[in-house]
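Checked the freezer inventory, then went back to the computational side. Two predictions to log before the end of the day. The first one is the construct we discussed on Monday; recording sequence and tokens without edits.
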Amino acid sequence: KNDVQLVGKGCPQSPGLPT
């Protein structure tokens, strides 16, 4: 799963990326 790409699109579950 590319959670890093989903961040900012409605996925605050991405670790390491400030949403």
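The second is the one RB wanted added to the comparison set:
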Amino acid sequence: MKILGRNRTVISVVLVAIFLLSISAVHAGEIISRDPYVSAIVADASNGRILYKENSEALVYPASVVKLMDLLIFVELIEKGVVKLTDKVSVTAEAAKIGGTQVWLEAGEEFTVDEMLYALMIKSANDVAAALAIHIAGTKDGFVKMMNKRAAELGMSYTEFNSVHGLPPSAGQKHDVTTARDIAILACEAARHPLVFRYSNTKVKNFREVEDVVVMRNHNRLLGKVEGCDGFKTGYIRVAGFSLASTVKRNDKRIVAVVMGSKFKETRDVKARELIETAFMKLALGEESAANSEYLVNRKIAKAYVQPVVIATEQKESPGTEKKKKTKNKSEKKKEESGSDPEPLSKRGAISKILAGLLLLVAGGVTTFFVFRRKHHEKSRDKYYW
């Protein structure tokens, strides 16, 4: 019996180690996209009322969707008179060196803010994102602070921007992190500014009209295909998969639809379209009652946010699962957080503490392994990101 008990203990340690391995893989930059997607949400843009959500609090990598925040900040500065569309932006050597999708800026070139905002949203140009950031804040890091400040003001509680473009982080840097819900909050705010659509609703445009012309084509394939679609932004990096923050206006109704972490670009677009059509159908039939609705940001009639979870451990849920969770009382939630009922320290408790210490050692080893692996593969990152 003792031998059997020891075997069970060993098996438990191995299983937990495997679990820790999976979590470490996410933080080390392993692929986290899913089929059809990691998370999705649809909301009424006029008031933030949620029309549909699935895993909307799961932490994800936004990739180039972060450029929607870049655009919002510049549009708000333009509205305040701090920046003009005709202002010239000088390209620095630092901005010209940015990789991934770009318009091949060269150090010393000058373009208007207007020209660069088109390139930011249509081409998803990373070099342009860097040039604009440096122009207004002096450094990319300075602009990232502006992004995070604005995110906090909007109530994007689980978003942390660490770049101005959404590219995979270099050694020693961190990923941009957000949730589908937070991106929906950003999209709703962007929809309040008419100037945003000047850039998000343009399908094709040239950058540089004389020499070295770059024909820019919008990566948002819903434009021109989904009735009323006029924005916003796609995103992709290898580890994150394909994401999209979109908006559609029909008659006097505007919605935002966000799909994050699809394995395939085509699936992302199909699912986004399905969510959009379903949302408008529900609105037309009056199935959505404002009285008992949940909203993107906390307000008196809105329910509290659900604590987000790392997507490595998040599992897809049936449509009614989230609703059931919210009916649990506080004592049940405490049990879920602790994993078990509290009990006095005993012999079993002492053994558990020893096992916990061993697991920490295992976790440390796993983390070290993946950090090394990440550095080893740093040079083999994808060439293109959008």
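For RB: Residues 347-376 form the longest helix (30 residues). The chain has one domain: 28-321+360-380. Let me know if you want it refolded.
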